[in-house]
């Protein structure tokens, strides 16, 4: 399915979501935000979808907010618009399926934060990232103030926000912010290989593990221990667990079905 600002395509068990405003470096539009939210929400209940890949058409992943339209909205409209962006970010974190960001060219502002909201980031070796909010007198939106300090600490996060300078993917890879670096010409191929590998894994276990990790930032150790106990009690009843045990005993690779 192709919307004006978002291409949605099922590639077997992989749901491909491609931002599609290449003329504006995939700057966010309301249609794009709503389309992403709807597609990711629907993926939660689609048994055929095991992994989601988020990418951008054209020369860049995303320039974030559309600078051309900034200053035209009143405060109430800004509040409403960011509320819809917030709903997208929360939907991404809630869906119990891995989301991979495939980043090339440039990821700036909320485009950078959109990548941070994914579970894994694969990036082209020559890609650049920037938290450019301060250049237009703004603070972060899209969750950057939450995600970045937890990943690299408050001092580096403040440096990136205050300076707004572009940061090479190589540096972010060294900081652990990016999971995988690939040559640009192989980014799409290698990202899809990763997505298929995850899609062939124990989908329910991946989803529950994602949920546990997300909850760990706001829960106590005691709460996480109990949540692990309850979740594991459910997981031992899954088909994937039984298949994993059989495969181990038969000395073969398991064939998981996400059930």
Descriptive account of the structure:
The protein is α/β, with parallel strands linked by helices and 259 residues long. 47% of the residues lie in helices and 15% in strands. The chain has helices at residues 30-44, 75-94, 110-116, 144-152, 154-163, 169-174, 184-199, 203-216, 221-235, 239-249, and strands at 6-11, 14-19, 51-56, 99-103, 106-108, 120-124, 128-130, 167-168, 180-182. The strands form two sheets. Strands 1-2-3-4-6-9 form a six-stranded mixed β-sheet, sandwiched between helices. The protein has a three-stranded mixed β-sheet with strand order 5-7-8.
| Uncertain parts | none
**Major beta sheet summary:** 6 strands, mixed
Give the termini separation: 27 Å
Strand pairing plus helix content: what structural class? Answer: alpha/beta
Kindly report the oligomeric state of this protein. Answer: single chain
* Spatial strand order of the main sheet: 1-2-3-4-6-9
Percent helix, as a range, is 40-55%
Tally the helices: 10
Q: What does the overall shape look like?
A: globular
The proportion of residues in beta strands is 15-25%
Helix and strand pattern: EEHEHEEHEEHHEHEHHHH
Instruction: From the alpha carbons, calculate the radius of gyration and give it in angstroms.
Output: 19 Å
Number of strands: 9
Determine the mean pLDDT.
94
Characteristics:
6-stranded mixed beta sheet, globular, alpha/beta, 3-stranded mixed beta sheet, 259 residues, 10 helices, 9 strands
How is this fold's topology laid out?
Elements: E1 6-11, E2 14-19, H1 30-44, E3 51-56, H2 75-94, E4 99-103, E5 106-108, H3 110-116, E6 120-124, E7 128-130, H4 144-152, H5 154-163, E8 167-168, H6 169-174, E9 180-182, H7 184-199, H8 203-216, H9 221-235, H10 239-249
Parallel strand pairs: 2-3, 3-4, 4-6, 5-7, 6-9
Antiparallel strand pairs: 1-2, 7-8
């Amino acid at each position: 399915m192709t919307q004006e600002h978002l291409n949605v395509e099922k590639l077997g068990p992989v749901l491909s979501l491609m931002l599609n405003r290449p003329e504006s470096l995939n700057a966010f539009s309301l249609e794009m935000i709503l389309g992403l939210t709807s597609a990711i929400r629907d993926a939660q209940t689609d048994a055929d979808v095991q992994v989601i890949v988020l990418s951008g058409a054209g020369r860049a992943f995303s320039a974030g907010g559309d600078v051309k339209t900034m200053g035209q909205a009143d405060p109430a409209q800004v509040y409403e618009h960011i509320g819809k962006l917030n709903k997208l970010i929360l939907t991404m974190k809630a869906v119990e399926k891995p989301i991979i960001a495939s980043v090339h060219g440039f990821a700036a502002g909320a485009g950078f934060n959109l990548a941070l909201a994914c579970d894994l980031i694969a990036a082209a070796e020559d890609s650049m990232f920037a938290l450019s909010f301060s250049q237009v007198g703004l603070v972060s939106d899209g969750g950057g103030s939450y995600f970045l300090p937890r990943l690299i600490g408050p001092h580096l996060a403040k440096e990136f926000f205050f300076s707004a300078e572009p940061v090479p993917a190589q540096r972010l890879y060294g900081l652990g912010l990016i999971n995988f670096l690939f040559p640009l010409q192989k980014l799409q191929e290698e990202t899809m290989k990763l997505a298929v590998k995850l899609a062939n894994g124990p989908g329910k276990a991946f989803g529950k593990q994602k949920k546990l990790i997300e909850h760990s930032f706001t829960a106590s150790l005691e709460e996480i221990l109990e949540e692990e106990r309850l979740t594991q009690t459910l997981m031992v009843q899954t088909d994937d667990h039984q298949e994993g045990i059989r495969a181990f005993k038969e000395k073969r690779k398991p064939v998981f079905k996400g059930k």
